[in-house]
């Protein structure tokens, strides 16, 4: 919903299909309640997984990507601009959370935390903690681009321990202690059985999942 309740922004099915099981091609649209009319907005049309407000009425955080690639982009409705701020096929190690009070987006990838403004500008990059305890000893063989079979950031993780700020234990079973899971739409549809699933409802309003 728009802040003045005059309408809402939504994902509109263009009637085209992306193929390869990726579903419809979507575009951003605005619906005005008073006039009962929809207006297509001049932004990218393609794979959109979900949208949510960053600054209500001004900027949106949109999930996008394709197949197993996960992406985040910021859409500035006032400026008419969109900015891709994350694109990765390493979906097991991408998490994010938005602080509406500070208007900052926090992204956790393997080995680093990135803080962005509500317009997508990168504010700072902070490495995951190193040497706080046995579980947070940095792996000397860590690769900046993990990929399949590459060394994880923490030594304990490579030996079967917890992973780090994006979840404990196996990336697919441990609950993230700080930020919500960021996965492609196809990956979201995959069943993950057992306790500790990423997809948990917050226990209190406003707390990150």
Notable traits:
single chain; 209 residues; mainly beta; five-stranded antiparallel beta sheet; four-stranded antiparallel beta sheet; 2 helices; 12 strands; 4% helix; elongated; disordered C terminus
Task: Explain what this protein looks like in three dimensions.
With 209 residues, the chain is mainly β. It is 4% helix and 39% strand. The chain has a 5-stranded antiparallel β-sheet, with no helix packed on it. It has a 4-stranded antiparallel β-sheet with strand order 4-5-6-7, with no helix packed on it.
What is the arithmetic mean of pLDDT? Answer: 75
The largest sheet, given as strand count, sense and whether it forms a barrel, is: 5 strands, antiparallel
Number of strands: 12
Task: Give, in order, the helices and strands.
Answer: EEEEEEEEEEEHEH
Q: Any idea what the radius of gyration is?
A: 18 Å
Widest sheet, order of strands? 11-10-9-8-12
Structural class: mainly beta
Which stretches of 5+ consecutive residues score pLDDT under 50? 168-209
Count of helical regions: 2
Short description:
With 209 residues, this protein is mainly β.
What's the layout of helices and strands?
Blueprint: E1 7-17, E2 24-32, E3 37-40, E4 48-55, E5 59-66, E6 69-76, E7 81-88, E8 95-99, E9 104-109, E10 112-117, E11 122-127, H1 155-158, E12 180-181, H2 185-188
Antiparallel strand pairs: 1-2, 2-3, 4-5, 5-6, 6-7, 8-9, 8-12, 9-10, 10-11
């Amino acid at each position: 919903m728009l802040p003045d309740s005059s309408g809402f922004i939504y994902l509109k099915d263009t009637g085209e299909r992306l193929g390869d099981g990726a579903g419809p091609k979507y575009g951003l649209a605005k619906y005005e309640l008073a006039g009962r009319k929809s207006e297509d907005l001049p932004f990218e049309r393609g794979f959109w997984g979900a949208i949510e407000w960053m600054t209500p009425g001004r900027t949106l955080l949109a999930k996008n990507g394709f197949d197993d690639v996960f992406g985040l982009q910021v859409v500035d409705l006032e400026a008419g601009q969109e900015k891709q701020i994350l694109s990765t096929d390493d979906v097991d190690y991408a998490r994010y959370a938005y602080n509406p009070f500070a208007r900052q987006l926090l992204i956790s990838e393997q080995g680093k935390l990135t803080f962005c403004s509500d317009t997508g500008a990168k504010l700072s990059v902070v490495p995951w903690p190193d040497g706080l305890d046995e579980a947070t000893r940095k792996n000397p063989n860590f690769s900046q681009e993990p990929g399949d079979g590459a060394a994880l950031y923490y030594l304990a993780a490579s030996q079967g321990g917890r992973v780090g700020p994006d979840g404990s234990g196996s990336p697919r079973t441990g609950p993230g202690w700080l930020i919500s899971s960021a996965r492609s739409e196809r990956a979201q549809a995959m069943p993950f059985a057992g306790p500790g699933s990423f997809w948990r409802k917050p226990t209190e309003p406003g707390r990150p999942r």
